[in-house]
Amino acid sequence: MKVELVTIGNELLSGMTTDTNSAWLAQQVNFLGARVSRISTVSDTRKDILNILMEAGIRAEIIIMTGGLGPTSDDVTKPALCEFFDTKLVFRPEISDHIATLLAKKSCRINEYNLKQAEVPESAIILHNDQGTAAGLWFEKEGKIYISLPGVPFEMKALFIKRVIPALKERFSFPVIYSKTVITQGNFEAQLSEQLRDFEAELPESISLAYLPSPGIIRLRLVTSGDNLEKLETEIEIQIRKLQELIPEYIVGFNEDTLELIIGEMLRDRNQTLSVAESCTGGAIASLVTSIPGSSDYFKGGIVAYSNEIKRDQLAIERSIIDKYGAVSKQVVEDMAINTRLLFNTDYSLAVSGIAGPSGGTDNKPVGMIWIAVSCKESIRSSEFRFGDNRERNIRRASVAALNMLRKLINDQD
Known about the structure:
- The chain contains 16 helices and 17 strands.
- Helices cover 42% and strands 25% of the residues.
- It folds into three domains: 2-171, MoaB/Mog-like domain (Molybdenum Cofactor Biosythetic Enzyme, Chain A, 3-Layer(aba) Sandwich); 176-254, 2-Layer Sandwich (Alpha-Beta Plaits); 259-412, Maf protein, CATH 3.90.950.20.
- The two termini are 50 Å apart.
């Protein structure tokens, strides 16, 4: 079954707003067992909206649109929908009541623009929006289904999960889709692909493998479909075990796992604590660690030792060590890790010092050179990395690499 996604908005075409709706919807459609055949973005104009509705209706069985349902004058989707489906706008008191109640909770009064949102195409099935003022709309024409959803992401997601998916499942019989994602760290996509060449060649035709790279992390997503969930799970698990034998040193987790979540669970299970000292990452690692609810159970704190002065005065790094080896060095980063652990009285610590860029590099220490150290009472480990010349990616990669080094150290202490 083909599904076409359409996002509506001049702000999307101008680049002022990033379209995250279509990416999320594409994932949900694939999980449902259907196939996204095309994604389009059109402007807030009657002509463009009518054209895409006509074209998409030829290509796909289900058309899902987001955007253009707001209360402002540039939101012209509903009049265009009325024209396309040969209907008219009618006032729905139940939508008006919902809008008034929602705004009252926010201490806002309802005005004429809000009331316009209670006007909807007469032939539409209303998809009640618990989260906002714009109702979702469901149309049928010539055997095709057209669904119009608000552009606000959290409203759109709630409507799709709560209203659209159940309605589609009632109407259609979708195949069972099963997938599992293997999260890897410590390798580059081309090298990982080379290592898995034979694995890919031997995959059953019913299973597909996708590489999903991001700075510091590569996700390997295995997907299959059929009518027997238990059988699908077994088939995927056979391939997962093969990966665990082929690349055990790179696998850090599965599905929605993150290194910060994994480390948090490890420390909590062991009743242990962590502290950090960051130079080039500027607090990014502490931000990742504390993004996990309950991280106060194991994270005591950290120091952003961006300058040599702070390294000396707060972390007690000897001036002679910095002068001799430089701030970006094995000697300095190991002292940072050890002294941070002692300062905060934690079981583990990690430290990072490097040249994030885009300037500041030398022939001996180029941009992207990062030193990372992890420490516990029994051990100190450090590694040098060369990540590249992009500042944002260097910070992200250094943060991920540091957390993975910490994960390995914790594992090895058991």
